[in-house]
Amino acid sequence: MKTVKKQKIISIKPIGVKPTIDLEVDHKDHNFYAEGMVTSNSHSFAYSILTAQTVYLKFNYPTQFYLSLLKMTRNEPDPIGEISKIHKEMSSFGVELLPPSLTLSGMDFAIEDKNIRFGLASIKGISEKTMEKFNNFQRQYASKFELFSSAKKAGLGIGIISAIIQAGCLDSLGKNRVLLVYEAQLWNLLKDHEKLNVAKYAKNYEDNVAKTVKALVEVVKDEKGKPLIKPSRFETIKRNSQKYKEIYNKNKISLDFANYFYSEKLLGYNTGKKLRDIFLHKKSTLIPISEVKKLEEKNHCDFIGKIDEVKVTKSKAGTPYANFQISDESGSIKVMLFGLGENTKETKWRPNKLEDCKTMNNGIPPEGSVVIVSGSKTADDSLFADSVASQQNSIYDKLSDLKDIK
C-alpha cells in the first residue's frame, strides 16, 4: 500500500461557475479529475442506490429505521436537537417514542412492541462515565428512599438523580417531578441515621421528606423524650436546603409546564401534557398547529408553540420583519411578524407589530421560547402574525438560575 502524503492547504479562492468535463481514471484509487479538481461520479451513483434503499427500509420497516437513526444521534454535535427532529416525523409512520423509564429502559434506545423506548444514555447530561456507574445501580426499587440510597451507593451524584427524575424516569412514583427533585436534594443533605429515620416514619407524613424531617424535630421522640433531629441540626438542614426550596417553590406554580420544560431540555420532545392543554386556561381559543394549517386563507386564529428558528430580516421592499418557525406536538408552521418601512408612519390602522413585539417581550423572543401567536392564515400554509407573546412561566433547574428569581 502506498503511503498517502498529506499536504497543507495554503489558501482557497472561489473560481466561479465554469463548465467542466469529468474524466474517469482507470486506477484502483478510483478518483475522477475535473478541471484540476478531484471529484467522483461513482459517489453520485452510490448515493442514488443508498437513497432508494433507505426509502424502502423507512416505509417497510419504520421501527427499525428510526431505531437506527436514534442510536446514531449520540455521534451528532447536537444529539437532543437531532432526537427532536426524528421524533416529529415518527408519528407519521405510526411509531411512538416512549419516555425513558428507570425500570423499562436500557442504556440505549430499544424496540418495545412496534414502538421505541428512550435510552437512559441519551438523556442530556448522562456521560459515558455515568453510564458505567449505572451498571452498579439497583434500578428495581420498593420506594423512593431505597432508590435514593441505591444511587448514592453506585456513586451517582445528586445532579444525575435530579436529571433522571426531571426526564420522567421515575414517573411511576408520581407525576410531581418538581417535588421529587426537591426531596432527592433534601435527602442528599441528611446524615445516614437521619435517612433511616425518615424512611421509617415517612408513611405517617404523606411519604414527604420535608414533612417527615420537620416531624422528627417537632413530633417524633426517642426513648428519652428527645427529638430524633435536634433543633440546631434542623436549622443547619434548613439553611443548606434553602436554595433548593426556592427553586421548588418557583417551579411548583406550574407543574405541567415544568414537566414540559424538563422533557424538551433533557429528551428533545414533550412526554407530558400538550402545550395547548397547559395554557388553555390563559387563552381558551388556542388550537393545534395542525388545525391552523387546515384553515382557509385570511382566517384568524390563536395557537401556542415553541420557537425553533427566528430571524429578523427585510422584505424586497425594505420592510423589516421577524421570520419564525414555530412548532407544537402536532406540527410546525412559518410565522411572519411585520414592522413598518422607513417611510411608513405608524397609525391606528397600521401598527408596527414588530416593534410592539419587541416592547412586549423585551426584545424578539429567542429560539426555545414558548409563545402564544395570534394572526391570520396565508395561502401558502404560513401565518401573518398580529402578535407573538412569550410566556413568562420560567422554570429553574439549577442553583445558578436563582440569580434570575425576583
Secondary structure: elements and pairs:
Blueprint: E1 23-24, E2 32-34, E3 37-39, H1 41-60, H2 62-72, H3 79-90, E4 97-98, E5 110-112, E6 115-117, H4 128-134, H5 144-154, H6 158-166, H7 177-189, H8 192-201, H9 209-218, H10 231-251, H11 255-266, H12 275-279, H13 289-292, E7 300-314, E8 320-328, E9 331-338, H14 353-361, E10 370-377, E11 382-390
Parallel strand pairs: 4-6, 9-11
Antiparallel strand pairs: 1-2, 2-3, 5-6, 7-8, 7-10, 8-9, 10-11
What this model shows, in words?
By secondary structure, this protein is an alpha+beta fold. Among the domains are: 23-59; 136-273, no CATH class; 283-390, Nucleic acid-binding proteins (OB fold (Dihydrolipoamide Acetyltransferase, E2P), Beta Barrel), CATH 2.40.50. 38% of the residues lie in helices and 16% in strands. The protein contains 14 helices and 11 strands. The strands form 3 sheets. Strands 7-8-9-11-10 form a 5-stranded mixed barrel. Mean pLDDT is 86; it is low at 402-406.
Biggest sheet statistics: 5 strands, mixed, barrel
Total count of strands:
11
Q: Percent range for helical residues? A: 25-40%
Q: SS-based structural class?
A: alpha+beta
Strand order of the largest sheet: 7-8-9-11-10
Count of helices?
14
Mean pLDDT: 86
Any low-confidence stretches, pLDDT <50, length ≥5?
402-406
Tertiary shape = globular
Strand content: 15-25%
Helices and strands, in order, run as EEEHHHEEEHHHHHHHHHHEEEHEE
Distance between the termini: 68 Å
Radius of gyration of CA atoms, rounded to a whole number: 28 Å
